[in-house]
């Protein structure tokens, strides 16, 4: 008999219920709320969801979890993280607090390249341990599905080890082979010649997607196109870091190539908003990164009002966003991006799952979906965003079993 778990007597249950996925525009607010609810999980899958008064007697062995005073939402999905790194950037953080900018530090050889040096010295076991530790932090904050990028190796062995580490920690690996140009490779074009010939064939066997940092000082639109076209031909889904500091052509390229997402968008203007809203590409908003770097927030309200599909993610990394908390990101979404709590919930669940190509089974509380749930310590699910420090997660159910209990 399959292991079954009944989460009973929940004060509330909230689940996105958009007519189509990804939810776009007004559909982001389509969240269904049940009072006095239960969720029945069986063999890692949701068997039934409903009101307590409609729950009949259950046959056989069923473990019970008391949901009194708690609210259930789907397990959170972090569709943009950089968890495979060594060292930290606390020294750089202190310099930024005294006025140095992220771009200045990057241009002086600090920033991403300093983390590359601290990552290359780790062997695969040490790198895997780091990724597992970061995945553990995510789980504590309610993240049950996540994407993890490489991009701090930029040599063959460390890039492939990063992707394997993410896979072995149950994340979805993205090859961020075009994150920066490592010092030993000369210019961006020479680096891409090498990376596409020597790393892509093996990276494509491990990764689900490819990503590029399209930005002044990193890779330009022509280089990003070459990288992404080669990755697409190798079977990878496409993502872009775009419009973080400057509008450098990321949105038109993402739309043309049919990318899954373009992420950041802090510098996106009205034309970019219109082009993204008219496309099937998801805009991934990273307000924790904008906050951490004291940069402008992305035009989230304009995007949603124009009918775009948006997701939210942490951008967890040592330099621009040292947080694994999606509840904190939801607070920022409501206070800084002016999204409603329901829009934020959709953006960190079903739409984020869509970015990872997994929305058929992940991101909703409904029969047939993965039995991944977050129980919030409040009788109103909107505490997800209302609790400012993000410390509102009372329990996490992952794959139908209790994984976190406070
Ligand atoms: O998404 N912008 C590029 N990459 C990361 C930051 C990487 C770093 O600073 O180490 C980001 O913000
Ligand atoms: Fe990022």
Give your account of this protein's structure.
The protein has 406 residues and is an alpha/beta fold. The chain contains 16 helices and 16 strands. The strands form 2 sheets. Strands 1, 2, 3, 4, 5, 14, 15 and 16 form an 8-stranded mixed β-sheet that branches. An 8-stranded parallel β-sheet has the order 6-7-8-9-10-11-12-13. It starts with a strand and ends with a strand. Bound molecules: N-(iminomethyl)-L-glutamic acid and fe (iii) ion. N-(iminomethyl)-L-glutamic acid binds at residues 82, 111-112, 115, 213, 241, 244, 289, 315, 317-320.
Contiguous helical run count: 16
Unreliable spans: none
Q: Helix amount, in percent?
A: 25-40%
Structural class: alpha/beta
The kinds of small molecule bound in this structure are: N-(iminomethyl)-L-glutamic acid, fe (iii) ion
Number of strands: 16
Q: Would you state the CATH class of the largest domain? A: Alpha Beta
Rg measurement, Å: 21 Å
Distance between the termini: 29 Å
Q: Supply the CATH architecture of the largest domain.
A: Alpha-Beta Barrel
Q: How would you state the average pLDDT, rounded? A: 97
* Overall 3D shape: globular
Fold-level CATH name of the largest domain: TIM Barrel
Fourth-level CATH superfamily of the largest domain: Metal-dependent hydrolases
Secondary structure blueprint with pairings:
Blueprint: E1 4-16, E2 31-42, E3 45-51, E4 63-66, E5 71-74, E6 76-78, H1 90-97, H2 102-107, H3 111-120, H4 124-140, E7 143-149, H5 156-168, E8 172-178, H6 188-198, H7 200-206, E9 209-213, H8 221-233, E10 237-242, H9 250-257, E11 261-264, H10 270-277, E12 282-285, H11 287-292, H12 300-305, E13 310-312, H13 326-335, H14 341-347, H15 350-355, E14 373-376, H16 383-386, E15 393-398, E16 401-405
Helix pairs in contact: 4-5, 6-8
